[in-house]
């Protein structure tokens, strides 16, 4: 069951959801979603330094990307075909009996901007700054700005609280993230090496 606007407000009041800083319901609350704002931290590819990405980490993924911070008044220009990781201004905490889903905004989608490629689900027990996989599918560069409404979150109730929420999993690579962390996929292979 997807939470309605009144149920989102109730979940925030009851502490099942925590959004910091607190959202402005008048501008950010939809009928069944809440908009979050673009932060000013981005992680971009240094594609001229490496010939390819090796998911086993032979070329460290952190070396393939660099983190940049822009001023609140400065635009971040996303060119066609580019992918950049970005965070919201807000920190989001989800209780053990809810999941969150990140969605794009129609107004940005009409310009070619997507906010996630595959990672739309935020598991029960998730806590941190949501990271978006910003992409430009359009034909023109688009300037986006910190503080603008960038994505919408919907929330669904689970049939029962998760037995092992995300923040208690052993391989919760992104729990508590404060910035746009690079992919941690290579850790899956490191784990396999230890087992094999």
From TrEMBL:
<comment type="pathway">
    <text>Pyrimidine metabolism; dUMP biosynthesis; dUMP from dCTP (dUTP route): step 1/2.</text>
</comment>
<comment type="function">
    <text>Catalyzes the deamination of dCTP to dUTP.</text>
</comment>
<dbReference type="GO" id="GO:0000166">
    <property type="term" value="F:nucleotide binding"/>
</dbReference>
<keyword id="KW-0378">Hydrolase</keyword>
<keyword id="KW-0546">Nucleotide metabolism</keyword>
<feature type="binding site">
    <location>
        <begin position="105"/>
        <end position="110"/>
    </location>
    <ligand>
        <name>dCTP</name>
    </ligand>
</feature>
<protein>
    <recommendedName>
        <fullName>dCTP deaminase</fullName>
        <ecNumber>3.5.4.13</ecNumber>
    </recommendedName>
</protein>
<dbReference type="InterPro" id="IPR011962">
    <property type="entry name" value="dCTP_deaminase"/>
</dbReference>
<comment type="subunit">
    <text>Homotrimer.</text>
</comment>
<feature type="active site" description="Proton donor/acceptor">
    <location>
        <position position="133"/>
    </location>
</feature>
<dbReference type="GO" id="GO:0008829">
    <property type="term" value="F:dCTP deaminase activity"/>
</dbReference>
<comment type="similarity">
    <text>Belongs to the dCTP deaminase family.</text>
</comment>
<dbReference type="GO" id="GO:0006229">
    <property type="term" value="P:dUTP biosynthetic process"/>
</dbReference>
<dbReference type="GO" id="GO:0006226">
    <property type="term" value="P:dUMP biosynthetic process"/>
</dbReference>
<dbReference type="InterPro" id="IPR036157">
    <property type="entry name" value="dUTPase-like_sf"/>
</dbReference>
<feature type="region of interest" description="Disordered">
    <location>
        <begin position="177"/>
        <end position="196"/>
    </location>
</feature>
<dbReference type="Pfam" id="PF22769">
    <property type="entry name" value="DCD"/>
</dbReference>
<dbReference type="InterPro" id="IPR033704">
    <property type="entry name" value="dUTPase_trimeric"/>
</dbReference>
<keyword id="KW-0547">Nucleotide-binding</keyword>
<feature type="binding site">
    <location>
        <position position="166"/>
    </location>
    <ligand>
        <name>dCTP</name>
    </ligand>
</feature>
<feature type="compositionally biased region" description="Basic and acidic residues">
    <location>
        <begin position="187"/>
        <end position="196"/>
    </location>
</feature>
<dbReference type="GO" id="GO:0015949">
    <property type="term" value="P:nucleobase-containing small molecule interconversion"/>
</dbReference>
<feature type="binding site">
    <location>
        <position position="177"/>
    </location>
    <ligand>
        <name>dCTP</name>
    </ligand>
</feature>
């Amino acid at each position: 069951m997807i939470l309605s606007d009144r149920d989102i407000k109730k979940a925030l009041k009851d502490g099942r959801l925590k959004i910091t800083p607190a959202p402005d319901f008048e501008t950010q609350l939809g009928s069944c979603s809440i908009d979050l704002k673009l932060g000013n931290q981005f992680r971009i590819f240094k594609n001229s330094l490496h010939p390819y990405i090796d998911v086993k980490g032979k070329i460290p993924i952190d070396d393939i990307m660099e983190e940049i911070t822009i001023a609140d008044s400065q635009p971040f220009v996303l060119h066609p075909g580019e992918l950049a990781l970005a965070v919201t201004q807000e920190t989001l905490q989800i209780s053990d009996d809810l999941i969150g889903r990140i969605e794009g905004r129609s107004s940005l989608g009409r310009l070619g901007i997507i906010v996630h490629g595959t990672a739309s689900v935020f598991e029960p027990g998730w806590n941190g700054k949501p990271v978006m996989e910003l992409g430009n599918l359009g034909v023109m560069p688009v300037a986006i700005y910190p503080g603008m409404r960038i994505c919408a979150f919907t929330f669904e109730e689970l049939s029962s609280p998760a037995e092992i929420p995300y923040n208690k999993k052993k391989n919760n690579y992104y729990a508590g993230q404060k910035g746009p962390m690079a992919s941690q996929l290579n850790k899956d292979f490191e784990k396999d090496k230890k087992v094999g």
